[in-house]
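Consortium newsletter contribution from the modelling node. Members have asked for a concrete example of what our holo predictions look like. Here is one, prepared for the zinc ion complex that several groups have been discussing at recent meetings.
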Amino acid sequence: MLSTRGSNLLGVGNYNQALILDLIRRSPEGMSRVELAEKTGLSAQTLTNVTRRLAAEGFIAEAGKVGSGPGKPRTMLALEPSARFAIGVHLDPAVTTVVLLDLAGHVVHHREVQPTGSSSQQQLEAIGAVARELVASLPDPTRVLGVGIAAPGPLDTHTGRLLNPPLLPEWTETPLRHELALSTGLPALLEKDVIAAMVGELWVTPGGELGDALFFYYGAGAGVGLSLAGTPLRGATSNAGDIAHLIVDPDGPACECGARGCLGVSLEPATLLADARLPASTGSVPRDPRASLDDLCRQALSGSARPVAVLTRAAERIARGLVQLDNLLDLTDAVMGGPVWARLSPFMGPAVADALGRAGGVATVNRLTLRESRLGTDVAAVGAACLVLDGAFTARPSHLLITG
Ligand SMILES: [Zn+2]
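And here is the predicted structure:
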């Protein structure tokens, strides 16, 4: 859990500013100076200085007074969501999503770029054009802080390149970060999609609710984003979270790695649709299975035997994966999300909870709490935009540079 204590030392104004903004941002009704003082331990003078500076820069505004009992009514300070914005891009085999996010984490605009039949260069141009259009739609485009890009791994975050993503072969060795920075004129960040999803979830969740948690991301592939003590876990090369070869079903399908029943191959949307005898995609976009997945979920909810069996087995495989991850890391929450999950969750949510309740091999003391992602189908794109906001505004003690 991140500390909420401030520092009254000189020279740490930016840290205090980020801390206060973070507390106000996570409180939908706003916060009074009295509450802020209680939470941070900052002196009244320091608090007045910090909140005055935040108000002068347009980040917060007074939002009425509340009074309970004796004493002066307290002035509430609330976030100004339109103070800053960020662009988020999610590169996905089925569809690339571009969002404009405000400081409150709300999606102001959502656009999709279809990858059909175009090279990565053409797609980059299309993504850049959409991003520029979203920035230009704002009365003050200078309020956009940057563009965050979420992409399937593996990737090289030092050079901002995708390496050899198995689901996006045409993007191999593409200098994605550099190209998008160039075409938008904005600072750009690149992050693996599952880590971006976890960052996004942490950004929009009230402080302290997600400490040791995983984000089970189910899209064209499945992966996990991890948060330990409230901080996203990236690993040595920022590629943490690949669970494709976690074995979850000894009787499952053969995997290219030589084993059977690896989580990735067992949960592939195309495999589920084939098992349920539904087409892999409908309509004009060959790699977009969204309509077929909606059909699969609808049929399962109506009790159709084969779809029920297919999705129940998928839920059991997910539950086995969750148990192994929980045993390894001793977590409290599993946040479920991603574009495929969002389509299947009306059936899969209860089915995974049920399978988790029946699962053997649980070695942890607390049962994992399942939650739905707060961010819906756009989670990776929103997470990508949150990376930009998180980098600019989240108070972390590591940002405290006290020398001497
Ligand atoms: Zn495998």
